[in-house]
């Protein structure tokens, strides 16, 4: 269907006469009339009747108006989007990540964006789903596992495991900021299920250290784990930042280990994306935001510790 004929039809609807519509479209009246007649022929419908030198919509014409406006709006949106794509711009971006990453990183990052930045719409997914989502219309994913070389990717940074306890727990009273796996397994633990990448990292470290869990309870809601830990029900081990009063310590394999246990987040997107440069720039900003947020969190925790 020729969109120009739809445009001519709506121009007459809005102007009320062929004369006024022709003037609005800057075309000759006979040419406009032919466009509408051709449209009526294509549809097999009469769209107007003549009444007192004015055109009146027939019932079929009335029904077509809404559809015609929607069709033109969609066509303009496609044209606008194509123009943006050719210029490498992203107006709306679909970003997939785990619920914890969305809550702890993506949502806070969105609050810092400028009006000219893309509208970021998040999609929750399990880690195993993220790879496939890049093949099904998602612009970018944030993954707690390293992505395939089939995709463009960027390391965002490490997120440490934190062992949360109540304010009257011995670790809190001693102001311990680091605990080892050997200290951890002596406590009743509140952990994610083994579907969690953070739990898998902890399990792997436990296995390599030749240690076994004692008493554990599993829950896949990090805030619930923190709440239970604050209530004195055990030591909650998650990667999420503090959400309740209490105390937390980072986790090392042993006293000689130089690094903390945790996960590493990666941003990934398709090499063939029409705006790969924009996505790369956004990933770099997300990396810088993550680094600054972690530094600010550590500063606040240190200040709280000195009070």
Automatic annotation (TrEMBL):
CDD domains membership: PBP2_LTTR_substrate (cd05466)
Coiled-coil segments on the chain, per record: none
Residues of the HTH lysR-type domain: 1-58
Keyword Transcription tagged: yes
GO molecular function, one term: transcription cis-regulatory region binding
Keywords per UniProt: DNA-binding, Transcription, Transcription regulation
Pfam families per the UniProt record, alphabetical: HTH_1, LysR_substrate
PROSITE patterns: HTH_LYSR
InterPro entries: LysR_HTH_N, LysR_subst-bd, WH-like_DNA-bd_sf, WH_DNA-bd_sf
SUPFAM superfamilies membership: Periplasmic binding protein-like II, Winged helix' DNA-binding domain
KW Transcription regulation (keyword) present: yes
Origin superkingdom: Bacteria
PANTHER family xrefs: HTH-TYPE TRANSCRIPTIONAL REGULATOR, LYSR FAMILY TRANSCRIPTIONAL REGULATOR
Name of the molecule in the record: LysR family transcriptional regulator
Species this chain originates from: Pseudomonas nabeulensis
Organism placement in taxonomy: Bacteria, Pseudomonadati, Pseudomonadota, Gammaproteobacteria, Pseudomonadales
């Amino acid at each position: 269907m020729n969109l120009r004929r739809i445009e001519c039809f709506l121009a007459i609807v809005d102007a009320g006469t062929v004369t006024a519509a022709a003037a609005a479209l800057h075309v000759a009246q006979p040419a406009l009339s032919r466009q509408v007649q051709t449209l009526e022929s294509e549809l097999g419908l009469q769209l107007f009747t003549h009444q007192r030198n004015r055109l009146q919509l027939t019932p079929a014409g009335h029904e077509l108006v809404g559809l015609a406006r929607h069709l033109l709006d969609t066509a303009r949106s496609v044209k606008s989007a194509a123009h943006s794509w050719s210029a490498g711009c992203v107006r709306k971006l679909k970003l997939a990540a785990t619920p914890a990453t969305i809550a702890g990183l993506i949502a806070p990052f969105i609050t810092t964006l400028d009006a000219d930045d893309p509208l970021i719409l998040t999609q929750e997914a399990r880690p195993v789903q993220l790879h496939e989502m890049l093949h099904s219309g998602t612009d970018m994913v944030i993954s707690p596992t390293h992505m395939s070389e089939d995709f463009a990717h960027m390391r965002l940074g490490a997120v440490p495991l934190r062992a949360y306890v109540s304010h009257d727990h011995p670790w809190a009273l001693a102001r311990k900021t680091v605990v080892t796996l050997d200290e951890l397994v002596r406590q009743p633990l509140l952990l994610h299920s083994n579907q969690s990448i953070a739990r898998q990292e902890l399990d792997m470290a436990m296995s390599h250290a030749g240690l076994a869990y004692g008493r554990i309870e599993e829950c896949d809601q990090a805030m619930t784990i923190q709440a239970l830990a604050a209530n004195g029900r055990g030591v909650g081990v998650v990667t999420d930042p503090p959400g309740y009063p209490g105390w937390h310590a980072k986790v090392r394999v042993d006293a000689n280990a130089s690094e903390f246990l945790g996960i590493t987040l990666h941003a990934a997107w398709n090499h063939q994306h029409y705006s790969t440069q924009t996505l790369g720039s956004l990933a770099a900003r997300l990396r810088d935001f993550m680094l600054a947020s972690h530094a600010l969190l550590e500063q606040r925790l240190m200040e709280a510790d000195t009070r």
